[in-house]
Specification:
The complex is a heterodimer of chains A (169) and B (571). Chain A is α/β, with parallel strands linked by helices. Chain A has six helices and eight strands. Chain A has one domain: 3-Layer(aba) Sandwich (Rossmann fold), CATH 3.40.50. Chain A has an eight-stranded mixed β-sheet with strand order 2-1-8-7-6-5-4-3. The longest helix of chain A is centred in the middle third of the chain and has 12 residues. Chain A is globular, with a radius of gyration of 16 Å. The model of chain A has no long low-confidence stretch (mean pLDDT 95). Helix content of chain B is 38%, strand content 16%. In chain B, α1 packs antiparallel against α2, α12 packs antiparallel against α13 and α14 crosses α16. The chains are: A alpha/beta (169), B alpha+beta (571).
């Protein structure tokens, strides 16, 4: 099993993330095991996927609207947001919406082009799990979560923006 | 100046550490060129034509003298003894070494400065009126609101990787001296009937390849909602702005595609969820930020200084400078002064390290130790006693900073252009110099009256050519440098009845050496057509249209037609 970061620890990743085949079709989903399926597959094979014994997760691309799974969030063991490039920032808004608007409290993982230099801000937007880009060492990357000691803004883990806490102090 | 508290300082220090490590990894080969590019861009570091270019943030253009001394020191120690003040109220160094940049940032951090978000697809330096806090037509002191926005935008976790760069301008006075209709978001302070402060919100303005005057999407946003509303705008943009085409990625394209009305609805729908949430500003926080600003200590003076007025009558040189470079102040007996960085023969906006030190000394002596950078690339001493003006003038003159040309044709706004910038199609600096030389006669310049002439070396329009009364744009034609001329642009509602406008191109482009002649012809038409000295160049363009100007430059409509058919026939 590959290593990943979850809740600030390096852990083995039990999940398999399914991607479309090159021709656009979906691969067969094996009945056992924990799989994270593309949003489109979830929408197409919902009943079938729920009937599997293994755990189920879903992943969103940058343009996919999290409101489409807002009612289903309790069904997922993982929600993943995929970053085609770390500089494509749509996933940050997706994460905040999942956490702050749709109340998702489970594992929210960033996948794709994830490097240590963006972990702090991903975490501030509500991600608690990170599957790093191949070649990145999760043990080294952990330090990225501590690049800054505070944020001015309201964040998912600290909803009170700094100015409200400054007042309290 | 806003003075940092411990937390502000720690944020900046932590950024230095982070960037030092990123630079180290890049130089060690463990961070790829592509990755490092994105990361360094969030810290103002470009790789330019000859060397890296480092853009240092001057939040809303406000500087303390000790900060300016540090900028001078950096210019001497790590660059070639000068810096370039930009149209974004920042400063750029054109010759630093990549491996020195972390040390430069550490030096900046010592005086509460940084290069955070001065480039990259994130919220950039918040800009404002360079007369904030001292203008007679003040509605609010915009610096406080700019600082609130600066803190909100600094390392905003959600909006650090937007589709494209994002520029916010705030104007706190009646006259728009911040070009708020030409920014991604423009905020105009207004007061409602009860005297409560709010903001008119403008979105989707901008220059660049597709110049657009922004749209008002909210007439009055009560101040407590400033951050949550801006956040709603940014979220809509972050989610739906185009990312497939660099040239169509700015918010103005999204606003245009959706229509301003639909965009407004999207924002309001998003805002419903954010309104009254934790980002809602409190009176306590506004007062806290206000109280961390140093405040000028004014003497109670009876009014205009008699000695100053007497000298105006006696010394024409002093009077000419005072007429152009000295500005009214809200406090009796005081004035604001523009130190011109537009001396003929010097690239617009450039200042040497020695000049910076000299200006720092002038600020300490005459203006309570602070100064501002204007988006017109000049330096402003905002709190000068009128009784000190003459002495200040003498000393500024000795430093080459007293060209009496503010608002005049020789106060040219120009980007660094092809001499430095790798994006440029053409050079800007030699064009600016050629025009300044042509119009070097002061009497002529003053006869021409108010005229904004802006030059950009490429479509990115860092030199704001779209909003110059005369705009010059460098274009590339088969590898050669050519220049397109537009007229009728205006940076903002600087006086009633003259709103922000994008200039219109007058016709085919010119070779560099033709430019001074063409400009002189345009001026000639203006002088013939104006009905009085009060009617400015821009007023004549708006009244008479561009045709008479075109005609003088390219010949009459018939002549142009004939030439076109002949060249078509030849082809």
């Amino acid at each position: 099993m590959a290593l990943m970061i979850k809740d600030r620890n390096v852990v083995a990743d039990p999940w398999l993330r399914l991607e479309r085949n090159a021709d656009g079709s979906f691969p067969a989903v094996s009945p056992a095991g924990d799989v994270i399926v593309p949003l489109a597959l979830w929408r197409e094979q919902r009943a079938l996927l729920l009937a599997r014994p293994g755990r189920l997760g879903v992943w969103l691309e940058g343009h996919e609207d999290p409101s489409t799974i807002a009612e289903d969030l309790k069904l997922f063991g993982v929600v993943a947001v995929h970053f085609p490039k770390f500089a494509d920032g749509r996933g940050y808004s997706t994460a905040r919406l999942l956490r702050e608007r749709y109340g998702y409290t489970g594992e929210l993982r960033a996948t794709g082009d994830v490097i240590r230099d963006v972990l702090f801000q991903l975490s501030a937007c509500g991600f608690n799990a990170f599957v790093l880009r191949p070649g990145e060492d999760p043990n080294e990357a952990l330090a990225g979560l501590k690049d800054f000691s505070d944020s001015y803004q309201s964040t998912v883990d600290q909803p009170l923006p700094l100015f409200r806490r400054r007042q309290a102090a | 100046m806003y003075r940092y508290d411990e937390i502000d300082q720690r944020m900046v220090d932590e950024r230095v550490v982070q960037f030092r490590d990123q630079t180290r990894r890049f130089l060690a080969g463990t961070l790829s060129e592509d990755d490092f590019r994105q990361l360094r861009l969030r810290n103002g570091l470009y790789i330019q034509r000859y060397a890296p270019m480092l853009r240092v943030a001057i939040p809303y253009g406000l500087l303390a003298s000790r900060q300016l001394r540090t900028l001078a020191h950096i210019a001497r120690k790590w660059d070639r003894g000068y810096g370039h003040f930009s149209t974004r109220q920042n400063i750029q160094y054109n010759w630093p070494k990549l491996d020195d940049v972390p040390d430069i940032l550490a030096e900046l951090a010592k005086v509460e400065m940084h290069a955070i978000q001065t480039s990259g697809n994130c919220v950039r330096n918040i800009t404002t009126d360079h007369f904030a806090g001292v203008a007679q037509d003040e509605i609010v002191d915009s610096f406080v609101w700019c600082e609130l926005l600066r803190q909100w935008s600094t390392f905003h976790p959600e909006f650090n990787y937007l589709p494209r760069k994002f520029k916010i301008a705030v104007n706190g006075a009646q006259a728009d001296r911040a070009a708020i209709f030409l920014h991604d978001i423009g905020l105009q302070a207004v007061r409602d009937e009860a005297g409560e402060v709010g903001f008119r919100v403008i979105v989707g303005g901008g220059m660049g390849r597709t110049p657009i005057v922004g749209h008002v999407i909210r007439e009055f946003l009560p101040w407590p909602h400033l951050l949550s509303y801006v956040e709603a705008v940014l979220r809509v943009y972050n989610r739906y702005g185009r990312r497939d085409n660099l040239y169509k990625a700015r918010i103005k394209i999204l606003v245009k595609a959706l229509t301003p009305e639909t965009f407004r609805e999207e924002v309001e729908a998003e805002w419903v969820h954010l309104k009254d949430g934790p980002a809602t500003l409190t009176g306590e926080e506004v007062r806290r930020v206000e109280s961390r600003f140093t405040r000028p200590q004014y003497q109670r003076l009876p009014g205009d200084d008699a000695d100053h007025l007497a000298r105006l009558a006696d010394e024409p040189g002093y009077a000419a400078w005072a007429k152009r470079n000295v500005h009214a102040h809200k406090v009796p007996g005081y004035a604001a002064v523009t130190l011109s960085l537009k001396k003929t023969g010097v690239p617009p906006g450039d200042a040497t390290a020695d000049q910076m030190d000299a200006v720092a000394a002038l600020a300490d002596r005459y203006s309570q130790g602070e100064l501002r950078v204007s988006h017109e690339q000049n330096l402003i001493l905002a709190d000068v006693r009128q009784s000190d003006l003459h002495a200040l003038w003498i000393q500024a003159k000795a430093q080459g900073l007293a060209s009496p040309n503010i608002g005049m044709i020789t106060n040219i706004i120009a980007c660094p252009g092809g001499d430095f910038c790798s994006l440029a199609n053409a050079k800007s600096i030699p064009v600016a110099q050629a025009i300044q030389e042509r119009f070097d006669s002061l009497d002529f310049v003053h006869d021409i009256g108010e005229l904004d002439l802006n030059i950009s070396g490429c479509m990115n329009s860092c030199g704001h050519h779209h909003v110059g009364h005369i705009g010059i744009l460098g274009v590339d034609k088969n590898g050669e440098e050519w220049y397109q001329i537009s007229i009728g642009g205006n940076q903002g509602l600087t006086r009633p009845g003259a709103p922000a406008a994008v200039g219109r191109v007058i016709g085919p482009s010119f070779a560099r050496e033709q430019i001074p002649d063409v400009i002189e012809k345009l001026i000639g038409v203006y002088l013939e057509l104006r009905e009085s000295e009060e009617e400015r160049f821009i007023d004549v363009v708006w009244r008479a249209g561009i045709e008479p100007f075109k005609e003088r430059v390219y010949g009459t409509h018939d002549q142009r037609q004939e030439r076109r058919s002949r060249s078509l026939a030849a082809a």
